[in-house]
Specification:
By secondary structure, the chain is mostly helical. The chain has two domains: 33 residues, no CATH class; 240 residues. The protein is 63% helix and 10% strand. The protein has a two-stranded antiparallel sheet with strand order 1-2. β1 and β2 form a beta hairpin. α4 runs antiparallel to α8 and α5 packs across α10. It is rod-shaped, with a radius of gyration of 38 Å.
């Protein structure tokens, strides 16, 4: 039969200002069986699994379970599991054993955190290379300039009643040239139709080129912003974590060595992730990769439409200009 002894019980209640001592009294305690340990078996499986995770990655805004202190998290001791609070507050454990178990718990949490951080940061470095894969979205200035020249040329050819044609027709050669073009369009209806269609295609190409470039620039701008954020966040996350980890570990090691009988639990706010954390970091990286993947996935469509517009624009313009020049030269000589 387990021995019983009188033990001073101190209760802390979490308030907006932290933990406050509210109750102190005497209670019978069975040696070797800490009262709080009995409650672990009463937890549901999902919460038990949650308490096996890393307290330094806890986020009160997204967590499915409200946690008030790091002492609620479970620590593996051989084949058993104990809440951290059960270890540091168990009067049946020696200070040496408490220190060893606490150091091991923090060592495991630190190893787990750094592993996940390294994985996230490593994936981020790979993300930086994605931007090179969207260079296909660029349309060169020379191509745009050529398309604009062809557009103006086609407008000039079909607008025979324009002011420019009237000025040209004031000369003998200009008059004959204009008349030949008019006769050509009158006798070759398909040529004028092709000229008009080419103008529409050129307008559509310029509109498409604008959208095409906007998509590319928008991605590049957002990608660079994300990369800059990730670089700054990496340093901020590492710095904040090291500070929180050191304070939490020191707090409990000092508690164990202290002669003071009661200490408030360390508030979870002292160790939980901040606004800049690994989860947010990884989510931004994933969004950036997903956007790049979407662009790459639709690459055949983007490039295909661009090539079709270029082919129709060049083909239509060269056909109209070439055929017109051929007929005009033949008629003049």
């Amino acid at each position: 039969m387990a021995k019983k002894r009188k033990e001073t019980i101190v209760e802390y209640v979490l308030t907006t200002k932290g933990y406050n001592k509210v109750v102190a009294g005497k209670n019978d305690h069975e040696v070797g069986v800490h009262p709080s340990q009995r409650q672990i078996n009463n937890l549901d499986t999902a919460k038990t699994q949650f308490l096996r995770t890393n307290p330094f990655m806890y986020n009160s805004k997204t967590s499915a379970y409200p946690i008030t202190s790091i002492e609620e998290y479970l620590v593996k001791v051989r084949k058993s599991e104990f809440a951290l609070g059960d270890i540091v507050r168990n009067p049946d454990l020696s200070k040496t054993k408490k220190r060893r178990l606490v150091k091991r718990a923090f060592k495991n949490w630190n190893k787990d955190y750094n592993t996940q951080k390294s994985r996230a940061f490593s994936d981020s470095d790979k993300t930086m290379e994605v931007i090179g894969g969207v260079n296909f979205m660029k349309i060169s200035f020379a191509t745009k300039l050529v398309m604009m020249v062809l557009f103006l040329l086609m407008i000039f050819i079909v607008s025979l009643n324009s002011y420019l044609w009237m000025k040209i027709a004031q000369t003998n050669f200009g008059f004959r040239l204009r008349q030949n073009v008019m006769d050509l369009f009158n006798t070759t209806a398909w040529l004028k139709m092709l000229a008009n269609l080419t103008i529409y295609v050129l307008v559509m190409f310029m509109f498409y080129a604008t959208i095409y470039s906007m998509v590319s620039k928008d991605f590049v701008r957002n990608h660079k912003m994300a990369i800059n954020y990730l670089k700054k966040s990496e340093k901020a996350i590492s710095r904040a974590y090291k500070k929180k980890f050191k304070k939490a570990k020191t707090y409990y090691l000092k508690m164990i060595g202290s002669k003071k009988r009661s200490h408030p639990p360390l508030d979870i706010k002292k160790v939980e992730e901040g606004q800049i954390n690994i989860t947010t970091f990884d989510n931004i990286r994933k969004v950036t990769v997903d956007r790049a993947y979407t662009l790459k996935k639709h690459r055949p469509l983007y490039v295909g439409l661009k090539n079709i517009f270029l082919l129709l624009s060049f083909g239509g313009s060269l056909t109209v200009v070439g055929y017109a020049l051929y007929k005009i030269v033949v008629s003049l000589f």
